[in-house]
């Protein structure tokens, strides 16, 4: 009996040890996608043991988000390169102008001799913008700019010179002035005549998205291209000198995961950071392991993007990338946490978190007839594979013709909120798609109301569901399901948005008590 008892104890102990090892292994396993949210055009650097990443948010203000990580998998927002890209009608949503899908695009991020450099370009301003700081997490950033706007460029420092490589298909190189005020004369030359050549002549997208790296005295230029009847593809060119000649090859062709570059860990491991077009949620980051073979970076595992990585587990995107907000500010708190961005440049006189402490107040200051042209829509990302955004709103001070509430924003947007007609307020749901227009409306006879939008991105289902509540506990569906669609005119994943705009009278306002975001959906709340 004693022997049997000891054997059982041994088996029990072995099982416990096995479970512990499996749990420990799971906690040290990251999964792809790295970030299930719209974080495209990444540029990543490592400074000692800390990683920094910049990305694209185009027409949003502030712009060019900076994120930080200690383990390459879990990221948090730490700042933006600029508060406002440029003051013109397009960025200010004035005179019928807008800049959806433009603003600023793919950035280049560098650290050189104690200074951080972030460069981007803009069709909206027609310029190349370079921002510099000694403190990437706290700033301030100093702005430098010049014309023209160099498409998808990469910044590089070498032997006391500052280079910029840019283009699509044909790639060029130029030297910049030391003060970043422009280009040195007579320094432009074609670097690679046809960078798309490795995938053939039948293409949808020529090689672009340049990012340049140096390893063991060789130069590696990453680009993305898209063969017709194929998928987005990583192309790498290699040279012994920065100005070439370069030889190119296909580096990865799997799941459309492409565009990015190289990053190493303090332990000497190498990865390539890339992204994938993933439907309505946007362009989402992936990591693939890299091995060096015959002085070439070999991406992936047997040429494939792995589902898991030997890196710390990536946790929730809440609170580092998106977060709930009760708008309750203490002394010294920023008016808006970094998770928030305005759709285009805001009018800062028309929003406040101090006029009514504990609330975000959005006021109307002009007449607009279109939601997409309205100022001061405050946004943050939706996240996959599913997410829910909800608000509590006080509509006491709305005026006739006002529309306010919760949006899911892209060109084919959906709205749920309150509209005021004469003395009667009503709950409404509308969407901007092929069905279009106001789909549902019911009378509202109280001043506090709750709204929720749930987004299902699983397997690219891309459905949004709309709900209202009169007490914050019992929810009712309203209107129709929105079939979300990623469109190139907006070129951005769907975002939750808080809005208030006037169609008849200015001077109205609404107060948002909170915004709550979750990474789960309710069990059919209608």
TrEMBL record:
The record marks 152 as: Important for catalytic activity, responsible for pKa modulation of the active site Glu and correct orientation of both the proton donor and substrate. SUPFAM superfamilies: Arabinanase/levansucrase/invertase, Concanavalin A-like lectins/glucanases. Keywords: Glycosidase, Hydrolase, Signal. GO terms for biological process: carbohydrate metabolic process. The active site is at 41 (proton acceptor), 208 (proton donor). Residues 325-517 form the Beta-xylosidase C-terminal Concanavalin A-like domain. Residues 1-24 form the signal peptide. This is Beta-xylosidase. It comes from Leeuwenhoekiella polynyae.
